[in-house]
Each structure stands twice: as C-alpha cells, then as structure tokens.
Amino acid sequence: MYNMDSDIEEIKRYIEMKDYNSLEEFLGVFMIPNKKLQNQNFDILCYSIKCGCSDKLIKQIYEWSNIKEVDYFYFINNEYISPLLYSFIYKKYAIIEFLIKKGANINRKYNNMTLLKYLISNEYFIKDFISVLVKNKYVFSRSDFNLLFQKDFNLIIFTFEEITLYNKNMENMKYYKNSNNNINNIINENEIKEKKKNSKNKEKNKEIEINEEDKKKENEEIFKHEINILFIWYINLFKRREFDKILELFKYETSEERSRGLKFFEYHFNYLDKKHENDIKLQFLHEIINKNIEIPKFQNENKIEYMSENYLRNQFNRILIRKHELYSRFISNNDYNRINKFKKNNKFFFKYMQKPPK
Questions:
Q1: Cβ pair 120, 151 in contact under 8 A
Q2: What share of the chain is helix, strand, coil (3-state, %, to 5)?
Q3: Which residues, other chains included, contact 100 with Cβ-Cβ below 8 Å and sequence gap of 6+?
Q4: What is the model's pTM?
Q5: Dihedral sign of CA atoms 332, 338, 342, 344 in order
Q6: Which of 254, 270, 316, 338 could form a disulfide with 285 if both were Cys (CB 3.0 to 4.6 A apart)?
Q7: Does position 18 have pLDDT exceeding 50, yes or no?
Q8: What stretch or stretches form a coiled coil here (predicted)?
Q9: pLDDT at 298
C-alpha cells in the first residue's frame, strides 16, 4: 500500500543529506502532489532553506516539485513561516530574489506587521537586510522608519543612504532608457509609418498604437523609494542636544520646507520646553557656525545659494545679547531665585560666556 507519509520522510532525509541525485529521481518518479509538499506540517521549500541547502539545490527543488505558488505563509506555535521569511532568517539572499521573481510579495503583512517589523520584533534583523529590502522594492512605512530610528540612529542613516543611491540609479536608468528609446524611435519611425499606411486592417494600426503606449508607460513607471523623516525625531534630538545627528538627518530631508534652511527648524524650536528653547537654539547655531556647515536656503534650477555666516552670527548674537541682558537684570535686582533658575536652564550660555571661542 502506498504510504505518503513515508515518502515525505524519505524526501526529508534526502534534503538533510543534500542528496541531489536521489531527491531529483524520487520527486520525478512519484509525482507527489503540491498539497503534500506545501502545507503547515511539511513545506519542501521552507525545509530545504532551513536545512541549509545550496541556492542551486533550492531552485532545483522548486522545479522538480512543480511548485506554482510561493506567496503564502503558515502561523505555527506563534511564529510565521514562509519561504520568503525563512530566506531572510537564514540569510539566503539569492533565494529572496528568486522567490520575488516567482511571485512572493515582499510587502505582505504578517498580522498587520510589515516584514521589517516582524524581523526586528523577533530579533532576526541584521543591517544587511536594508540593502536587500531597498533593492527588492520593499515599501518602507513611517512605522518602519521609526523602528529603525529607535533601534539605531546609524541604521536609519544607512537606510536613507541606500534609498538615495537606489533612486539615483533608477533616475539614471530611466534617462538612458529614454535616450535609447528616442534613438530607436527615430530609426523605426519611418518603418512604423509605412506599416500604418500599408496596413488595410485597422486593428493592426490599433495594435501598433497600443504597443507604443505600453512602452511609454513602462518608461514612466519606475519604482522609487520615499524617505519620511518624522517631526518627533528632530524634537527628541534637540532635547538631547545631539546636533550632529540633526544635521546628518537634515541631509535627507525631502519636505518642501527644507528649502527654508535654518527657518525650517523654527517650528521645531516651538515644541521644545520654553525653559531651554533658546539655550538649545543658541548651542545649535554655535555648532553650525563653528563647524562651517552649509544649510541650503533655497534651490532654484541649477543655482544653489547658502545662508551666509553673517546671517547665522546675527541670529546667534541676538539670542546671546538677550540672555545677557536678562541675566544682568536678575543680578542687579538680586533676584536669586531667578538667577538659579536661569543658570539651570541656560547651561550652554554660561559655558560659552566662561570660555568663548577665539
């Protein structure tokens, strides 16, 4: 009597042994149905990935098993299992791309969790995944970006850098593709016109027009990642006075408000504790001036203008003078209560006044 369970055990044994020839012969002879090879008790793709089979063998197993569907998952023992998830977990990067080409959806949700959130939440995530996700058109959500920011600031910067490079490559690809298409269109223009003239069948003319439209759409529909920088990130970094990180983040700012330069941050200052707001702003301006960092004021076509150092110094000096006047008034009035509060809330001001830069 035919025993399907023993066949599955046999398949498992061949996979574990990496017995390429026996597995090919076995799957070819018995023609085991997909529902026996892809179910929550045994999934041949997941099992081969988990057992550390080579990329070549996994692809062969896909062919030998006549697999038609790869975009699925199981939920077993509070854990999601799928060929794509296992490919990430076991770092099978070539298989990730293979599965996506075969129809696996990298943007699938797992109980309302994105792939990135699932990997981070279950401690599978490593930095290399960022490049893989970007390359394979994973759509980063605001929540994804926030998770990366909370996990490690360098991770979010690395992600933005990878996205920026990817988008630039896509733009270049689109440019070269359009250039080549324009050349081909010029070469074939007379030929296409001749076909339209000589064709007695109107349907053929329509087909030519449809094909031309499809080519145009293909050129236009190039995937690009979006960068989202959350407002609260700036607030938290200002509170911690991590100005280097603020300026690093600002490089990737895509908001139209970015063109306002330093004024971009005025709105953020309004959300800081009023006790420390001006002291933080004073220190931030000092960082920019001292490090000679250029913050774009606006960009118009190919012309880029930067905020002059004089403008920044004037901003800095105005705050400095106001603070100095306020503190002097407290001193002259012997208002010790306000003096103590002022010292507590204006640490950078006093540090600067004690040892101003030369």
A1: yes
A2: 65, 5, 30
A3: 84, 106, 136
A4: 0.79
A5: positive
A6: 316
A7: yes
A8: 176-221
A9: 41
